[in-house]
Amino acid sequence: MKKMTAGLSILSLMALAACGGGGDGGEESAGDLVVGGKNFTEQFVLATITSIYLQENGYNVEEATNMGSEVVRDALVNEQVDLYWEYTGTALVNYLGEDPVSDGDEAFDLVKELDYEQNGITWLDRAEVDNTYTLMMRQEAADEMGIESISDLADYVNANPGELSFASNAEFASRSDGLPGAEEAYGFEFGSGNVNRMDSGLTYQALRDGNVDVSMGFSTDSRIVAFDLVNLEDDKGFFPAYNAAISIRDEILEEHPELEELLAPLAQNLDTQTMTELNYEVDIEQRNESEVAREWLAEHGLIDEE
Amino acid sequence: MKFPIGLPRGLTKRFIFLGLWIFLLPMTLIFMLAVFLSQQTLEQQSDDQTFVAAQTLSLQTRQVFDHQIDMLEAFVFDYRNNGNLERLEERASSHALREPVFSEVMLYNADGDPAAGPDAVDSMAPQAVSEVFEEAQWRRSSFVKGVTTESGHVRVYISVPVQEADHEPINGAIIGEINPSYFYHLIQTSTIGSEGWNLLVSSDGTVFTDTKGNRFRNESIREENIYDLLSRGRMGTFRGKFFEEDSVAGYAPVERLPFYAVTIQPESQAGAPIATLQQVLSSGWMLLFLAGLVLLGVSARWIVTPVRRLTDQAMSYAEGESWHLQVMKEKDEIRTLAKAMQFMANDLQEKERFLQRILSSFPYGVITTDSSGYITSVNREGAQLLNISARSLTGRPVETITSKSLSRHIRVLCGRSRPFRNHSEEFNFVNHKQQKLVIKVSSTPLQDEKGERIGVLTTFWDHTEYRKLEQHIQRSEHLAAIGQMTAGLAHEVKNPLGTIQMAGDLIEAETEELRKKYQLRGPAVSMIQEASADIQEETRRLNELVKRFLKMSKPHKDEETTVDIGELTEEVARLVSHQMKRADIDCTVYHKDDGVIVRGDRSQLMQAFLNLALNALEAMERVDRGVLSITVRKKGSNAEISFHDSGAGIPASKLKRIFNPFFSTKQEGTGLGLSITHDLINEHKGSIEVESEYGKGSEFTVRLPLDKEGEEAQ
């Protein structure tokens, strides 16, 4: 009986004292990469996801974000950036001088082919994220005016010229696949006085607050739902497909052929809905991009949960 | 009851074992769980705290940079509106004076040279600045860059492009070098506790600033384990060595900036609450464990002791002690048990006592033995008969019995393998008082419930009285036969005797007539006269004898009355007093008791006593100054009358035959006196005994049953 008691005490004390920790050892870097990115939320999120994913796979990653769309493209071409997330529509129209293509696969195949031939840039498989331009109205106002599609909007604008104001960022207001193209395709015009140019992130708020009646936006932006806005249907299929895909310099891919396979799961696991949610987390919930990115990566088993 | 000393055994052991399992073990487990969980919680808490601090640090840092970028961008916007490059240059360089964040801010032109001209004082490292400017050229937007120079110094720059519109090629850039001491002070505010410290690390792993007096500034943490986590862009908490100190480190990248924010707490500080908690819980556990042991001991005493007491009691009861346990006061099962056991014990004892009582009240001696001849029990009567205590016999071999014949009898039966039934025997035994006893023994096999022989049951009893009685009866029958025979003989004698008497009378009368008629004289005549007188004398005596004999042979009690023996003996003494005086005999009656009354025929009793008195008289005829003591007393339910004489006594050889008819020690005796007396006394359900010592005297003792009614009447 005494032995047993002693044994019990020792056991308990051992249990009481038990505690510990551990750490990982270092590894050799798999290579240095510069991940580029544009200057809006989705791009920050995508860049962060990519760089964390690469870092977790042993790459030494430098981020170069907050760049203009064409600036980052130039940086890629000029070998200052190694890879970044680009949209098929943007590349097709802005960089390759092609006409916009509405069909996702068609657009991607064309971009992939042309960009490789002309610029030595490889497009990895596209994600089901279609961050195309969209025209939005407040749900309430749209219902009141009976506007559901861009054609309805065109009719309304033509019937009541100068009544509706429009919010746009600088790029959309001047791009051929932006407002001017849409106005031409649907046959209406807001009039230069009614177009308010502002930072891309502010258009949603301006629309919500009633400063404008119609606003441009990106279809993956979470604020469309959060602010009770409505996307006007692109019934003429004007806006091109803007599927997100990683564009990477061919030399980099030659140097790191494993990247194609390594990065594939990112595109496979992303779609418009997911992207909207991730954007929502950052824009509306004001969370850290790296937090959101890590969460998503871990959720899909792409990195180990900490 | 003794409290067990040393290792507990039996019930207590079980109780303590059970107690350990159902109380101490779960308690220990709960404690272990509590310690484990609270440790986890506290660790988690300290991890969270450290991590949150790192996040705060990260946010703080980012806000400072964002603010400065906004300020510099505002200058550029102004420039875009007014195109005044000089003013921009001036604002940029004076901004460093206002803002302690910067150690220096300078405007560079499109070629990357200071806008103020080559004379401008440029304390910034030209190599690093050109690297930043080059990047500004292709990025065309604001950014922050850390540059580690060849000397190993880390420099951090903010670069804001100067351009006509966003994303246009740049005309120049405002580049500001960050003053590490600003962050040194800034991040001081968010250290944890007195031992905690913070640091900012550039993305290549070089310490930009730390709150330990910049001790680690420009040192690389690439060799530290934590760098592996940082380089993967992770955020969280790290436990392990950091600069050779066990630490808890919170770490997070600074969003969009080439920095990592790290918050360090020495393990000793972070673990302090855990250590305290562990200590408290451990001592609490020890305390409870000890208390539990004490409680177990006490409750073992409380619960087990009554049971032990009961068990001990039952054991000693089984060993033959009486049940002495007090019924416990508690109203519980043990009390019920104790009560029930006591009841059972009493009942058992009662039954045993009852059997014992039957056995000891049994008027015969009873001995039981086992089959190997060891005595298992002896009853009281048996022990008395053998004059040995039952206890000294029990458990001993049967040879311990004083009577060799008895032990032999039992031994033979014990050894007998064949079945037997009621084996009886009779033998003599001289007891401790040297009395010769006749013992009758009867043995039967002792069988258990299955009918197997487990020993011998022997019953024995004093058969002496029975034997005596048997002899007495034989003698009486013998006497009665002789009596009848002699009575017949007497009848036959009586008639011729009458004829002889008449003939004698006739002879005398005729002789007298002849003598008178013929005047006969002479010796012959007188001889005839003498002879006839003798004939007459002897026939008369003979006739008397026959008459008496016949009378005796029919000793029927005529009438029964209550007879006062005292009075009767006095009367007898009076009747013989004359003869006694003549023979110089002192005759005295001693009345030891008054009112000694029996029922019977007074005249017959008188005759019996008279016979005894005369018998004594005759015995003392040749003795000078003889003494006859007649003593009357009550003895039990009898009247005892003894006639003690100081006569010649009776030889032992004749003593046995003294009551036989026609047996006399005297020459003149008929031999019927004592025989008649014997018969008379027998007729009255009494007895007569004689003791005698030859030459000294005899004592006849008559016992007659006392008249109960008469006695009660008195």
What is the averaged pLDDT score of chain A?
86
Q: What spatial order of strands do you see in the largest sheet of chain A?
A: 7-6-8-5-9
Greatest chain-chain interface?
A-B, 51 and 56 residues
**Number of helix segments of chain A?**
15
In words, what does this structure look like?
The complex is a heterodimer of chains A (306) and B (714). Chain A has helices spanning 2-17, 41-56, 69-77, 88-95, 104-119, 139-145, 150-159, 170-174, 179-186, 203-208, 223-226, 250-255, 258-269, 272-283, 289-299, and strands at residues 31-38, 59-67, 83-87, 121-123, 133-138, 166-168, 195-197, 214-218, 229-231, 244-249. With 306 residues, chain A is of the alpha/beta class. Chain A has 2 domains: 32-130 and 241-299, Periplasmic binding protein-like II (D-Maltodextrin-Binding Protein, domain 2); 133-231, D-Maltodextrin-Binding Protein, domain 2 (3-Layer(aba) Sandwich). The two termini of chain A are 46 Å apart. Chain B is of the alpha+beta class. Among the domains of chain B are: 62-180, Beta-Lactamase (2-Layer Sandwich), CATH 3.30.450; 362-462, PAS domain (Beta-Lactamase, 2-Layer Sandwich), CATH 3.30.450.20; 468-551; 557-713, Histidine kinase-like ATPase, C-terminal domain (Heat Shock Protein 90, 2-Layer Sandwich), CATH 3.30.565. Chain B has helices at residues 10-82, 85-98, 126-139, 180-186, 225-231, 267-270, 272-318, 333-361, 380-386, 390-393, 404-415, 464-518, 523-553, 565-582, 602-619, 652-655, 673-683, 708-713, and strands spanning 102-109, 143-148, 154-162, 172-178, 197-202, 207-210, 236-242, 245-253, 259-266, 365-370, 375-378, 423-430, 436-447, 453-462, 561-564, 585-591, 597-600, 626-635, 638-645, 687-693, 697-705. Residues 1-5 of chain B have low confidence and may be disordered. Chains A and B meet through α1, α2, β2, α3 and α15 of A and α1, α3, α5, β7 and α7 of B.
